[in-house]
Amino acid sequence: MQVIDASRPTKAVIDLDALAFNFHSVKTFIGDAVQYLAVVKANAYGHGAVECSRRLEAEGIDWLGVALPEEGVELREGGITSPILCLGSFWPGQESLIIDNDLTPVIFAIEKAGSLNAEAAKRGVVVDVHVKIDTGMGRVGIRYEDAEEFAAEFRQYANLSIDGIMTHFAAADDLEQNDFTNRQISRFNWAVEAFKQQGIVPTYRDLANSPGAIAHSNSLGNMVRLGGVLYGLGGDVLPSGIKTPELKPVMSVVSEIALVKQVAEGETVGYGRTFAAQRESVIASVPIGYHDGYARNLSNRGNMIVNGKIAPVVGRISMDWVTIDISEIAGANAGTRVTVIGSEHDISIKAEDIAAMLSTISYEVTCGISTRVPRIFEEKI
Ligand SMILES: *Cc1c(COP(=O)(O)O)cnc(C)c1O
């Protein structure tokens, strides 16, 4: 990544050593009996798909998972050679893209198989696919009751080979719904058996996302598909009260104060005049706004860290700017560092904390840091 010397100081700092740490921490927790697929869809949850994949590849990851074939192509162009699973299948017209880039698509409807088989037949090749079974997520996938019929019908596609069978959990993070997760596991095992009846025994059997892999040891199959935990976002996607591996946040978002001003008691700040100073105040303008992914709903609610102290967001968040109250913080001037997500000394603001304020999960927070915010990759090796 090219670092432009003169630019707005708002950056997302990606700690690739923390990413590697999390991978090994989870691997130690779960063990070596399974293979590991790192989910790097959506630009690795906002962390930079190519750079994260390169590091994970160097650390021994077995598979990478993307949502769209386009995301898989980006990885190939970035030099990634590991197997890549397209979790969201592919769209009409992308059959060549799949084959040319050696991507492995998930098939969740028989109709998807026909066009890919035709393209593979034209080239005289056999293409590996993984089949997704819907065991209760209710989103995409072959319904588990239809697994045997699907497998029978699939046999006509001589240029496709089912190398994986998978499912996805609806509520693996909620221990109160363990009965349902266990039902999903049973239905999956039933579908594996139905495939076997049709002579299909795929190499890969995978069910578990992050909460599945950490909280349900009976869901490991022979591969796990990990997203959130690799990025250190365990805080709100792993159940509380269970043993979990140590995780470190991978993304920090930092900026600098652009301008400091004195605001008299009673004066207002920002659009809509939603904040009025209760006393003479010192207000700093920080160049990050909702276009950067700092949600407008954090207006008058969010916090940032300046000189190791909490600086509350005051007034509305606008497209490109946030105002914070630094009245209580000594020595803050234009150019002083502002931590938007991350830690300074012993104070931290996690993506999980921001997510809680917004009634969402940390994934949406890191995914939402927009492309206008440059990613700066840090690693010691
Ligand atoms: C996104 C995704 C995952 C990863 O989920 P995490 O909770 O981030 O670990 C796993 N499997 C599938 C099919 C997914 O779409």
Fold blueprint:
Layout: E1 11-15, H1 16-30, E2 35-39, H2 41-45, H3 49-58, E3 63-66, H4 69-77, E4 84-86, H5 95-100, E5 103-107, H6 110-123, E6 127-134, E7 142-143, H7 147-154, E8 160-166, H8 178-197, E9 204-206, H9 210-215, E10 223-226, E11 251-256, E12 259-263, E13 268-269, E14 275-276, E15 281-286, E16 303-306, E17 309-312, E18 322-325, E19 337-344, E20 347-349, H10 351-357, H11 362-368, E21 375-378
Parallel strand pairs: 1-21, 2-3, 2-10, 3-4, 4-5, 5-6, 6-7, 6-8, 8-9
Antiparallel strand pairs: 1-11, 11-19, 12-15, 13-14, 15-18, 16-17, 16-19, 19-20
Helix pairs in contact: 1-3, 7-8, 10-11
Bound molecules: pyridoxal-5'-phosphate.
Which short descriptors sum up this protein?
elongated, binds pyridoxal-5'-phosphate, alpha/beta, single chain, 9-stranded parallel β-sheet, 381 residues, 7-stranded mixed β-sheet
Quick description:
Helix content is 28%, strand content 25%. With 381 residues, it is α/β, with parallel strands linked by helices.
Kindly describe this structure.
This protein is α/β, with parallel strands linked by helices and 381 residues long. 28% of the residues lie in helices and 25% in strands. It has 11 helices and 21 strands. Strands 2, 3, 4, 5, 6, 7, 8, 9 and 10 form a 9-stranded parallel sheet that branches. Strands 1, 11, 16, 17, 19, 20 and 21 form a 7-stranded mixed sheet that branches. α5 (95-100) links the parallel β4 and β5 (103-107). The longest helix has 20 residues, at 178-197. The protein is elongated. The mean pLDDT is 97. The structure holds pyridoxal-5'-phosphate.
